[in-house]
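Reader question, answered in our methods column.
A reader sent in the components of a multi-part assembly and asked whether the whole thing could be modeled at once rather than chain by chain. We filled in our standard form and ran it. Here is what they sent:
COMPLEX SIZE: two components
ENTRIES:
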Amino acid sequence: EDQVTQSPEALRLQEGESSSLNCSYTVSGLRGLFWYRQDPGKGPEFLFTLYSAGEEKEKERLKATLTKKESFLHITAPKPEDSATYLCAVQSYSGGGADGLTFGKGTHLIIQP
Amino acid sequence: EPEVTQTPSHQVTQMGQEVILRCVPISNHLYFYWYRQILGQKVEFLVSFYNNEISEKSEIFDDQFSVERPDGSNFTLKIRSTKLEDSAMYFCASDRAPSGNTIYFGEGSWLTVV
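And here is the structure of the entire assembly that came back:
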């Protein structure tokens, strides 16, 4: 059974204070690791898909990295508008077809001005 | 930017009633999903759909749930006899490929069962 654990559960930063969010995962065979941003009452907004250890992707102030057991979402010089819950999810290989994502509980990030 | 659209945004229903949640996936996508999120909890996979049939389903997706793609654009989730514990946000998602491409989610349908 796939498992995803995110830490910390909540993080409060000052504007401009860089930090990292962690996603530890257990999966039989990784098809992809996904990062999403979720605002209250909204659907998850796609950020990145990572496929193999060593891969890195960047988007504005966000950078995602992947190892064989965990992924990090690095936030550089965050702004208040980066406040949201960040979700990590894994998709594993099965017999083919469209496999469902297994999500973590998320990290609730607050950026104070 | 293309998006997944869902209707209704919010529905209140009596326990035991049937509910249909509707989704229009992104037009060139082939893989479709339903997820749910109970308030304060994590997003949970319900079912995936490809080539007009269910590809995978979770333990949550029991006999009271069904999915259908009635035409070339809509994808629906039906809950036959709603229970109080079905109250949740239901998300539709779509993907162009199953190989971990980009899975886009809709804004959700908030279902309240009373």
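What stands out: Residues 23 and 71 of chain A are 5 Å apart (CA to CA). DSSP finds no helices and eleven strands in chain A.
Send us your own complexes using the same form.
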